[in-house]
Amino acid sequence: MVNRVWQTYRTVLFCRLFANYFALILIPVIVAAVLTNFFVVRLIEHDAERLNNTIMQHFSEQTDDTFASLERDMVNMLSTASLKNFPGTSGHPADLTQHYEWLHSLMQQMNKLDSEDLVYKSFLYFASEDLVIDGNTYNNKDEYFREQYLIKDTDMPSYIANFTGKKSMVFTKPHTVFERPPFTRDIVSTHSNTAILLSYPFNNSNPEVYLVVNLDLDKLRGRLGIQEKWVTDTMLVNSSGSVLISNGSSELQPDSFAAMIRMNPEQTLFLNQNKKALSFTKSRFNDTWYYVSMIDLPTLMKPASTIRTMTFVLLGMFIVVGGLVSYNLSRRLYNPIREIKTGLESQHPHLDDAPGSH
């Protein structure tokens, strides 16, 4: 009976020693792991989100400045071109001279617009005259779009439909243009363009002329891209959710985006219906525009994820090492007690037969 009690006591004593040492080693480790996950990791996540917001803000300001500069050039061109006084062609030599001087003056101004980096070709489209003028030539509308600016047949109706009513820096849908030498059938290259329209007079619902600046979409997409590895796509979207320009292949549902910008504050990360992270910044150039970036959240949060993983790995290592160390210390402290008990048993071999032992 005494032996059984002593064996139970030995077991309890050893477990108590082991638990004390294990807790002494493990509790600080667990506290450090919890603090790391709840404070350090979250701080890194917040810093990553702020970095993304700073880059988006800087990017939107640069892009807005590009569009604002282009708008100033377009407005200045229309304001100084004397478009209201369209010279007639009565056949009189003086009238013809004035007419040709006027045409060449406009062509020179169109050349200045064409020198812009993003501009593929610009021209003036006269609403009430059968005339189109660009930096190299002037022609009637049918001839111009057949020889000078050849648009894909399926894109032509929607492109021509833009020349109605007032237009103020309005983007058209993308269209395909075939580049070829005039009056030949040899297509040299193919371009994907989008056009910006500005009508004149500016506040007139029945304008006399449209200034059309066709932008090279490839160059524009390159300008729109954010050179950060966690940004997978960048888009220019209007308030109805229609994507005006995109430098990637991501799709955005207009209805869902319109709801998202109402429900989520600007410059915050949130998940859309497809569980993709989005961030948007409102344009200062146009109140109906938004710059939207698709975020690869694991890449953006990789530093925080790495620290979190390392924390759990170290916690597991400390549990194993702490268990071994606690076991070793417990045995070292317990062994002298066991040796004392063994010595007592050897000196009193009949201790269990003593009265009252049962």
What's a quick, concise take on this entry?
With 358 residues, this protein is of the alpha+beta class. Helix content is 51%, strand content 20%.
Termini Cα gap: 6 Å
Low-confidence runs of at least 5 consecutive residues: 353-358
Query: What is the number of helical segments per DSSP (H or I, 4+ residues)?
Result: 8
Structural class: alpha+beta
Alpha-carbon Rg, integer: 39 Å
**Biggest sheet statistics:** 8 strands, antiparallel
The total of beta strands comes to: 13
**Helix content bin:** 40-55%
User: Which shape, going by the Cα principal axes?
Assistant: rod-shaped
The whole-number mean of residue pLDDT values reads 77
SSE string: HHEEEHEHEEEEHEEHEEEHH
In percent, how much strand structure appears in the residues? 15-25%
Topology summary:
Elements: H1 2-80, H2 93-114, E1 119-126, E2 132-134, E3 138-139, H3 141-148, E4 150-151, H4 156-160, E5 168-171, E6 175-179, E7 189-200, E8 209-216, H5 217-224, E9 231-238, E10 243-246, H6 254-263, E11 270-271, E12 277-282, E13 289-295, H7 297-300, H8 302-347
Antiparallel strand pairs: 1-2, 1-8, 2-3, 4-6, 5-7, 6-7, 7-8, 9-10, 9-13, 11-12, 12-13
Helix pairs in contact: 1-8
Task: Tag the structure with descriptive keywords.
single chain, 358 residues, alpha+beta, eight-stranded antiparallel beta sheet, five-stranded antiparallel beta sheet, 13 strands, disordered C terminus
Report on this structure.
The protein has 358 residues and is of the alpha+beta class. It has eight helices and 13 strands. It has helices at residues 2-80, 93-114, 141-148, 156-160, 217-224, 254-263, 297-300, 302-347, and strands at 119-126, 132-134, 138-139, 150-151, 168-171, 175-179, 189-200, 209-216, 231-238, 243-246, 270-271, 277-282, 289-295. The strands form two sheets. Strands 1, 2, 3, 4, 5, 6, 7 and 8 form an eight-stranded antiparallel sheet that branches. A hairpin with a 5-residue loop joins strand 1 and strand 2. Helix 1 (2-80) packs antiparallel against helix 8 (302-347). The longest helix has 79 residues, at 2-80. The chain is rod-shaped and about 140 Å long. The termini are close together.
